[in-house]
Amino acid sequence: MILVGVTGGIGQGKTTVSRMLRELAGAGPECDLETSYIIAEVANAWIATWPPTPLKVTPGQDAVGLANELIKTLPAAVRQKLDTSVTSEQLKIERNDESLAFHHQLTGYLQARLAAGPAADELFPAPITPANKALHRQLFMWLGACLVVKVGPNIWGNALERRIKALAAGGQGFVTVGGIRSKYEVKMIHRNGGLVVRVVRPEAQANTDLTERFMREVVPDVEVINNGSFEELKGAVKRLHGDLAGGRLRSNPISPQRYRAA
User: Fold this and answer.
1) Domains along the chain?
2) Most buried among 70, 136, 165, 262, using CB within 10 Å?
């Protein structure tokens, strides 16, 4: 099986490159893996335990208090979807500057839902899907980073690895793993015989989200420079796919092979 982990910042084109590679390989949608899909599964299991919308705070309660109340049911969702044990004590928000800064995405997400009132169902539709996940971005960013920091750096990589192995056992020949965000996920890709491709779009704005900062630790084997037209990008990805299919690429993080769109 050819395994390709794809990394890159927001707006670089990594989703497009992943899709192009699968299309060239004739791989089906089941061969499209991504941490965000697994985060959505955990988030959906968790949201299903929340009180009916609109969310409300009790007298004397604020967004931090509401967050800690909701966090009480998150460990069950983590156990169900990730087969990992965690306690609400590990995840809860302390009322100090450091904790408030770390958890600001969750509290910001809840404040937005509180402000929306009865319109929250429309503004933050459930279940979370690839089509609407941008509306839940703050929740995604918090959940992804929180479980890495509070539970373990391998938590998402382990979940991905189980799915990769299942696809390989099922005879799939080409799998992409999008959204590679940490050196631990890179090791997982290499451990399973894959390569890591970074997509770079020079004019895209830098992002300072926590998981985007984690991504800077990622050292790729291959780079796709998304500096041309859509058709030129397709040409670069086609060359990459040809080299992958021909077995001409090897892991080389010191001097990654580059495929330029223009």
Assistant:
1) 2-27+173-260 (3.40.50.300), 38-150 (no CATH)
2) 136
